[in-house]
Design goal:
The chain is α+β, with helices and mostly antiparallel strands and 1079 residues long. It is 47% helix and 16% strand. Helix 3 (81-95) packs across helix 4 (111-125), helix 5 (130-150) crosses helix 7 and helix 10 packs antiparallel against helix 13 (339-369). The longest helix is centred in the last third of the chain and has 110 residues, at 687-796. Bound molecules: adenosine-5'-diphosphate and magnesium ion.
Length: 1079
């Protein structure tokens, strides 16, 4: 919730003088002083802001402060210039009311600073954006430019505005700035040529000389030395705390931002330089033949330089300083100027040059900051005019300035009262007129059309004949003598005849702000503001764009014989326009007060402030404000602020705010005369009542604070308690849940156990019952079957013979057999003896028969097969059969021989012519002829021999020659020895003592060993006259070589060097045959 603050919070003294109690000048000053001492420089009188000049920077103009005051109600925060600026800006933006900010106060009271604060505040809070920011920047930067040219150091203020300034800032409907218009009022141009003691010329001269670069100065033909220029008083050329050089840079920069072209800036500086040069031109008298003195220029150097700067022909200007041409009707009369007149002409030129330059600057700035869009806009005017001035020596300028202030006071009185009155009317409050000093009489004294001081001055100036300041004073003395605010020694009013404080050449006016003594000297001249036509024409001829513009009346084509309007007349007119302008706008007042004359912080000179309070009419202001009612407030905030004082309105009032306030006031028993109800506001007559309300509110706030504390503490404890309670419930709930869960799980597991036991017991019981039932059923069935069988047999025995069963059996068997054989016939295997197939038997009991039939069938088909053989083939098979009988499973060589057919004659001995002779030597048929190796006993190597076998003998012959080497009759052969292995070694052992045995046994080796041995055995078997040839199969046997018996031993060797069998002699009695193992 937004904290509602109020002006009334943390107040030092009272923030609004209307609330001052008791109200008198002393308490007023005391309040101001108290606040000033606490750095509270702003105080309100209703909606008027009193601003005390702090003469030091206070930390109350920060961007944070801007934010604080932004969009807040006027009385919401402690008094501040920002509150006023915000109020003005918001009513401009939101209520579409043109505003003006009127800043008044005497010189050095802080008006210019206040106007800048207002402008910067408005710039900070109004819209943003590139274009808008540029406009803002230009508006703000116009200040340094105008201050440089229009401000000067005076005894009152180091930066005193020497011109009046009114600036209209224009906004669009959204409140974004569009541009602005500046109006300037009467620059104090006399300062250009002469400054009072302790004061300076306009800042720009000093800034130019200290800040410009050497180059620029050279171009402008200037020296950096102030003392070289007559127009610059040396009194206070350097002011402490004022950095002219830095300010010059600021000004140049500002000119650039505002939009001055480089050449424009240069032209301006040239003019400034020309004014300085002009001041240095001096004159000397030169007697003429007619006895009059004519002025001559002393040293033409400055004149020359000035003419060069401005592009003026030197002779023209020189002449203009010596002669004066007066044109009357058709005549032109030229008169010479004396030295005094020449000086007058020079100074007049300098003043005109400078003041016209100043006006041109304002116009030029206006061109830049002019609102571009032609849309309807709202305006906020800021008026910062020179303040009321009372010097030791007051002249025409002070008269004008004070007149202006007089007018402002008038408008202040008028508007304040009007506004006040209007408010009462608007609110429907009864209004009784209040007495206040109306300065309208003083204004009349000065500006009245027929007999006002200004009118009379004009009259004097226009009157033919000798016109002096004295004649003017005389006139005043006659016309204004009776006016109660006019005082003069020589007036008809004898009252002042003896008043020595009033010199003869002076008159005194009782201004609203005090009496001011004016010296009449110079009034007529200053009002005339004469510039000799020759000079303006000389200026017009200048070859310098700016100068030409400044002196349009010098144009010979536009010679105007009418006198130009006087300064006083012009000023009166412009003040009139300004006043009318201000009256159309909603005024906001800032009344500046200077706390001391020393420009020092922390000093509060009571007499000085009292004086200002008096002439500013602040007391009257307060009184007027309070005359009706001291305090007013719209119903809503009032109800909001005090509603706690009444039970019925606290804490909420549902009805309209006004009724709420009425209930509140009745309840508080505030006397009826103390307040009135307006349409939208309540008006409180006395501050006392407001303070009573405030006091009650303060007490009530304390009570409320206690109440809030109480409730808060209660709430805090209670919420803590509730939290604890809640937590406890949660904890308890969780714990209970846990405990219940545990318990449940226990019960559940016990139940499961009990249940399983019960179920098991039940199941077993059921099983037992079922088993019993099943057995019973089986028994019943068996019994029933037997019983039925008995019954049936007993029944059927009557119908069948006793042996019918066997017959049935035989028949059945017969049928089975029949089917079996027929089946066998159709599934008979092939006739091949090696076919192993035989159909399966259908019945177990046929097993024996089936096997037998298979055997018979096999024998039969073998027989069938054999019966197809020829005799020869039969013999071959018989031989193979015999070989199998001898060797099968006894010698490893056998399996390889089964597939080899026994060819017998491998040498085809009868056909081979080589063996013709051998063949013929054989008496019997050769059964086997082959090449064998005869093993040599000495080294185990073999020699090839032809081996021939007949029915009677074995013959060994030489392989090459066919010569018979040995012929052994078969009866001499006792046995044959062979190994068990796959070698072809065999030993033929001879009968001891036989003729063949002389040479010993034969150890031979043949590839057809099996065939050879088989054949040998067959022959032996068929011969009736001999013993059966024994065949010895062993891996070690003895062989008789001539005398010795040698043992032949067969070993299994690794299959080395091919598959060959090797025979080695180991020693005399051992031959070792190594046979590779057959895989
Ligand atoms: N609000 C302020 N804060 C600090 N100094 C101020 C303030 N107002 C004025 N001054 C000081 O007082 C001097 C005179 O103020 P200025 O506004 O020029 O007076 P005025 O325009 O009324 O003649 C300034 O130069 C400045 O030093
Ligand atoms: Mg000022």
């Amino acid at each position: 919730m937004e904290v509602k603050t109020s002006l009334l919070d943390n107040m030092i003294g009272v923030g609004d003088m209307v609330l001052l109690e008791p109200l008198n000048e002393d308490s007023f000053l005391e309040n101001l002083k108290k606040r000033f001492d606490h750095n509270e420089i702003y105080t309100y009188i209703g909606s008027v802001v009193i601003s005390m000049n702090p003469y030091r920077s206070l930390p109350i103009f920060t961007p944070e402060k801007v934010e604080e005051y932004r969009n807040r109600n006027f009385y919401e925060l402690s008094p501040h210039i920002y509150a006023l600026a915000d109020e003005a800006y918001r009513s401009l933006r939101d209520q579409d009311k043109d505003q003006c900010i009127l800043i008044t106060g005497e010189s050095g009271a802080g008006k210019t600073e206040a106007s800048k604060l207002v402008m910067s505040y408005v710039a900070a809070v109004c819209g943003k954006g590139q274009e808008v920011n540029k406009v803002k920047e230009q508006l703000l930067q116009s200040n340094p430019v105008l201050e440089a040219f229009g401000n000067a150091k005076t005894v009152r203020n180091d930066n005193s505005s020497r011109f009046g300034k009114y600036m209209d800032i224009e906004f669009d409907f959204k409140g974004d700035p569009l541009g602005g218009v500046i109006s300037n009022y009467l620059l104090e141009k006399s300062r250009v040529v002469k400054q009072p003691r302790g004061e300076r010329n306009f800042h720009v001269f000093y800034q130019l000389l200290s800040g410009a670069s050497d180059d620029t100065l050279k171009k402008l033909k200037l020296h950096r030395d102030f003392s070289k220029y007559n127009y610059l008083s040396l009194d206070s050329a350097v002011v402490t705390g004022l950095d002219d050089a830095a300010n010059f840079r600021t000004v140049r920069n500002a000119m650039q931002i505002v939009g001055f072209m480089e050449d424009e800036v240069l032209s301006v500086l040239e003019l400034v330089a020309a004014v300085l040069k002009l001041g240095n031109i001096e004159f000397k008298p030169e007697s003429r033949c007619n006895g009059t003195d004519e002025s001559r220029i002393k040293d033409k150097n400055d004149l020359k330089e000035m003419c060069e700067l401005l592009g003026i022909e030197q002779s023209v200007l020189e002449r203009a300083f010596s002669y004066r041409t007066v044109e009357a009707k058709m005549e032109k009369v030229s008169t010479t100027l004396n030295v005094a007149q020449a000086y007058y002409a020079r100074d007049a030129l300098a003043k005109n040059l400078y003041s016209r330059l100043f006006s041109w600057l304002v116009t030029r700035i206006n061109e830049s900051i002019k609102a571009q869009a032609k849309t309807r806009h709202k305006v906020m005017g800021v008026l910062d005019i020179y303040g009321f001035e009372i010097f030791e020596d007051n002249s025409f300028e002070q008269f004008i300035i004070n007149y202006c202030n007089e007018k402002l006071q008038q408008i202040f009185i008028e508007l304040t009262l009007r506004e006040e009155q209007e408010e009462y009317v608007r609110e429907g409050i009864e209004w009784t007129n209040i007495e206040y000093f109306n300065n309208a009489v003083i204004c009349d004294l000065i500006e009245k059309n027929q007999n006002g001081i200004l009118a009379m001055l004009d009259e004097e100036c226009l009157r033919p004949g000798t016109v002096t300041d004295e004649t003017f004073l005389d006139k005043l003395n006659t016309v204004c003598a009776d006016h109660q605010h006019f005082e003069s020694r020589l007036s008809k009013n004898s009252k002042f005849l003896t008043d020595h404080s009033l010199p003869h050449n002076c008159f005194r006016i009782q201004h609203y702000a005090g009496k001011v003594l004016y010296r009449v000297e110079g009034f007529v001249d200053k009002n005339n503001d004469l510039l000799y036509r020759d000079l303006s024409q000389a200026m017009y001829k200048a070859n310098h764009s700016l100068i030409k513009q400044l002196f349009p009346e010098g144009n010979p084509a536009k010679v105007n014989l009418k006198r130009p309007p006087t300064a006083g007349f012009q000023f009166k007119a412009s003040v009139g326009t300004l006043m009318r302008n201000l009256q159309t706008k909603n005024p906001n007042y800032i009344r500046c007060i200077k706390p001391n004359d020393k420009k020092a912080s922390h000093i509060f000179t009571e007499s000085l402030v009292r004086h200002q309070v008096r002439y500013l009419g602040l007391m009257e202001n307060v009184r007027v404000r309070r005359a009706g009612y001291a305090f007013r407030q719209t119903y809503e905030p009032c109800l909001e602020r005090y509603k706690m004082l009444c039970k019925r309105t606290w804490p909420h009032w549902r009805g309209p705010a006004r009724e709420g306030v009425e209930v509140l006031m009745t309840d508080l028993q505030v006397p009826a005369e103390e307040f009135s109800y307006g349409r939208s506001k309540i008006f409180i007559r006395n501050p006392r009542t407001l303070f009573f309300l405030e006091e009650r509110r303060r007490q009530c706030l304390q009570d409320l604070a206690t109440l809030i504390q109480k409730i808060y503490r209660g709430w805090k404890c209670r919420s803590h308690f509730l939290l604890l309670k809640k937590s406890q419930i949660v904890v308890a709930a969780w714990y209970r849940r846990y405990a219940q869960q545990k318990k449940y799980q226990k019960i559940k597991s016990s139940t499961t156990v009990v249940q399983s036991y019960t179920r098991g017991w039940q199941a077993r019981k059921l099983l037992r019952e079922l088993k019993y039932q099943k057995r019973c059923e089986e028994a019943v069935t068996t019994i029933a079957a037997y019983w039925h069988g008995t019954q049936v047999r007993r029944e059927y025995r009557k119908f069948f013979r006793a042996n019918a069963g066997k017959k049935i059996y035989d028949f059945t068997i017969q049928r089975i057999m029949q089917k079996y054989f027929l089946g066998l016939k159709s599934t008979m295997p092939s006739m091949s003896p090696i076919d192993k197939n035989w159909p399966a038997r259908p019945y177990l009991f046929l097993d024996g028969v089936h096997t037998e039939l298979r055997r018979i069938f096999h024998l039969w088909r073998c027989k069938k097969y054999r019966s197809q053989f020829t005799e020869e083939r039969k013999a071959v098979y018989e031989e193979k059969l015999e070989a199998s009988e001898i060797f099968k499973d006894k010698k490893a060589l056998y399996p390889s021989s089964v597939s080899q057919p026994f060819k017998g004659d491998y040498l085809e001995i009868s056909k081979n012519p080589k063996y013709q002779k051998l063949s013929s030597a054989m008496d019997e048929k050769v059964l086997l002829a082959d090449v064998v190796n005869k093993i040599n006993r000495a080294n185990g190597k073999g020699t090839a021999r032809l081996f021939l076998l007949t029915k009677k003998s074995v013959v060994l012959a030489d392989q090459k020659t066919g010569q018979v080497k040995a012929s052994v009759p078969l009866p001499d052969l006792t046995s044959v020895s062979v190994s068990t292995q796959s070698d072809g070694f065999f030993a033929l052992k001879l009968k001891e003592g036989s003729a063949s045995a002389v040479k010993g046994d034969f150890l031979l080796s043949s590839e057809h060993l099996i065939e050879i041995i088989t054949k040998l055995h067959r022959i032996g078997a068929t011969a009736a006259d001999r013993e059966q040839l024994s065949i010895d199969i062993s891996d070690e046997f003895l062989v008789q070589f001539k005398q010795d018996k040698v043992c032949v031993k067969f070993i299994q060797g690794a299959p080395k060097n091919g598959n060959s069998v090797s025979c080695k002699r180991k020693n005399n009695r051992l031959l070792e045959v190594s046979v590779p193992t057959t895989a």
